[in-house]
Structures are given as structure tokens and as C-alpha cells.
Amino acid sequence: MKEIFELVNEMSPYLLLGFLLAGVMHVFVPSTLYSRYLSAGNFRSVLYSALFGIPLPLCSCGTIPTAMSLHREGASKGATVSFLIATPQTGVDSIIATYSLMGLPFAILRPVAALFTALFGGLIVNKFAPEETKMQTQTKVEEKTLKEEFGEIVQRGWGRNLWGVLKYAFFDMMQDIGKWLVIGLVVAGLITVFVPDTFFNTFKGNTLLSIGLVLAFAIPMYLCATGSIPIAVALMLKGLSPGAALVLLMAGPASNAASILVVSKVLGKRTMLLYLLSIIGGATLFALGIDYLLPQEWFTAPLKQLHTCCADGSSAFNIGATIVLGLLLLNALVWRYAVKKSDEGSCECESCGCASHKQTTVYRVGGMSCNHCRTNVEKTISQLEGVESVSVDLSTETATVTGSASEDEIRHAVESIGFKIEKERN
Predict the structure, then answer these.
(1) Beta strand 387-393 pairing with 420-423
(2) Is residue 187 predicted with pLDDT exceeding 50?
(3) CA distance 423 to 48
(4) Domain 355-423 has CATH 3.40.50.2300
(5) What is the pLDDT of residues 312-353, one digit of tens each?
(6) pLDDT value, residue 352
(7) How many helices (H) and strands (E) does the chain have?
(8) Which among 241, 181, 170 has a CA at the least distance from the CA of 211?
(9) What's the mean pLDDT in 142-169?
């Protein structure tokens, strides 16, 4: 427990700042920016997609439906893959947290590596897996312009915008990645306690073997960009090379079994193979560059300072930040996993005209794991012609749809962004 507490104490002020900045981006950056410039199958769309994705505070599970929604709304395959590779590797929160534990060189290299890997992936997809005939889903609303979105942000007023920032930063995001952050910290503590200090001495002088070992575990696993940091730190303290640690930070968040299956299903097997090739190749090249071309002191010195800092004790500010972070995490996780939503209440009258007496259908949606997933499913269904209202419940994994849209239309729309859906049987 001591090792976990020391890691949290060092990270907590930066994590709180990162969550806050993520909330600011969510509220004040119009979503139109992320879709209107990504449709062309050229270098510019791939570059824009990577640049848009790098600072976004989306975890891997949230990136999948967001990327599939972008593709459904017109983004090219290359731009979609670029977004899929760049976004989960970084984010304002994880960059700040990386700096807090691993130092400035790692904090700079993470977004740089994400950018170049995403560019490579998007360009080779455009080259070797060109766009096929694109199926457009009919929607009932036109996409808002940037001016309209900025106008809505201003009209909401500072009070609502501030509440939106705080709610997204310290409730929605903590629900999304809080579990994975806690798991990452626990795993880091277990590694620190149970893995022998000489474990990675076997791989000294054999960077490729270390990289291969890390890739074998990181590619199929789910690791969020922030939760992977303490694990990487713990492994480096046990002797893992900085390059192999970067592989964990890149490949772990950028891919997992779910994203591989979704990319294969929605974008095609060839695109999926190119997507994996980009992640593996980019991570390997950057790892070799770090281990053989850059001074190792750049990456090991911050860990020594971290050890010294922890040995000297934590400041009152850090302890206070840790307490605040712990309470916020507890609040978010309790709401998600312990507090079950009560039924909205079924109306017993015969002629009230409420939504329950219209064409209302409940669907079970598989694969949702965060609020970004829920939002994307809700948005996708709501845009279908004939849908009057839709409510998606993350805790019960259900979507309640009112309107005349057919079951096939709803199924096609939801499956196009990577989720499974079926009508709930009574």
C-alpha cells in the first residue's frame, strides 16, 4: 500500500489539473472541429485527425465509438485510423501526469511518437486500403456550423459552462477512466512489491526481446493512457529499458482486443492489419531510438528524483490533492457501480399521452464501457429519421427509443460505430 500511496501522492496534483483541462476542452471546443476537416483521403485530413486527437482526453474505449462516428459522418479511413492511433495514446491529462512521474523527455516524446505513428498509419491506410463505396445513414438534422456551436457555447453562459467543465472533468471522466487508473496504480504497487529487482537483468543488452515481450502483453490488453504510467514507472524501476517502457505507453492505450475487432468489422481486415502494423512499427522504432540514440540519464534521472522525493515524505499540498482525488474517484465509482438507477416510473393511466404510450422500444446495447460510448450511441440513434427521443443507460446497457425508426435502421446505425444491439425481449 505504501508504494501505491507514494505514486498517487506524486501524481494527484497533476491528475486534477489534467482532468480540469480536459473538462475545459470538452465544453469550449466545438465538436464540429473534429469532423468537418477529416473527409478527404489526403495528407491534410490525416494530419488534422492526429492533431485533433492528441490533446483529447479520450480513453481507448471512448476513442473507438468516436472514431467510428467520425467515419460514419464522412471521415476517410486514413483519417479515422490516424485518430484511433493518436487519441488514446495521449491527452492533456496523461501528458501532465507523465511529466509528474517520468519527467519532461517522456512527456514530450509521448505526443511526438503518437503524432508520427498516427500519420504513418493514416497514410498507409489511404494508400493500401482506399475508401470503398461509403454508406451514408440518413439523418434528420444537418451538422451545425462552427459559428452556431460557438454561439451556443456563449449563450449557455459562464455558470452553465463552468458546471459543464466541472461535471465532465470530475464526474464523467472519472467514471470513464477511474477504474482503470486505480487498476494501474494497484498493478504498479504489486510489481514494485513482488517482481524481483533483478528480473529484467535477463534482457539487458537485448532491447528487441524486451520490446517483443511488452508488445505481446500490451497489444491485446486494455490500458488507458494515464493508468499505464505507474505501471511503466514500476517496470523501469525493476530494470526495464526506457524504450521498452515507451512501447507500453504507446501500444497499451493505442490498441486492445476490442479496438482490433471493431476496426476489422467496420473498416475491414486490411485496414485492421495496417492499423496494428503502424502501432507495432512506430512503437518499436521510437523504442530503439530512445535506447540507442538518446542519453539514458534523460529517462532514468526523474525516477531517481521520484524515489528520493518519496523517501523524504510528501508535502501537505500533495496529501491534500490525494485526498480530493480519492473522494472524487470514490464519488464517481460509487455512482457508476453501486447506485442503480430507479425505473423512470411507468405510467398506469391509459390516455396520458406520455412517451411510454408511443412507439417505444428498449434495446440492449453491448460493448459500452464509458460515458463517451453512451454519448455516441445516443447521438447516432437520435440522428435517424423518425426518432423522437432516445435515452441510453450505461449502467443497464439499454437504449430506450421512441419514434418510427425501424429496428433494422437502428441496428445498422449502432453497429456502424462498433457496438452490438438487439431488441430486448420481454
Answers:
(1) unpaired
(2) yes
(3) 38
(4) no
(5) 556 788 889 889 988 988 887 777 665 544 444 444 444 444
(6) 45
(7) 17, 4
(8) 241
(9) 79
CA atoms within 13 A on the CB side of 106: 35
Q: What is the dihedral of CA 187, 189, 192, 196, to 10 degrees?
A: -50
Segment (H or E) for 366 = strand 360-366
Alpha carbons 35 and 322: distance in angstroms, whole number: 37
| Angle at 353 (CA atoms; ends 348, 355), nearest 5 degrees | 85
High-pLDDT (> 90) share of the chain, %? 25
Residue 396: name the closest of 326, 339, 334 by CA: 339
In terms of Cα–Cα distance, which of 40, 37, 32 is closest to 48?
A: 37
Q: How confident is the model at residue 140 (pLDDT cuts 50, 70, 90)?
A: very low
Domain ranges of the chain: 2-329, 355-423
Residues 6+ apart with CB under 8 A from 334: none
Query: What is the distance of C-alpha 34 from the center of its chain?
Result: 15
Query: DSSP 3-state assignment of 111?
Result: helix
Q: pLDDT, tens digit, for every residue of 269-307?
A: 999 999 999 999 999 999 999 999 999 999 988 887 665
Q: Closest by alpha carbon to 333, among 228, 161, 183?
A: 183
SS3 184: helix
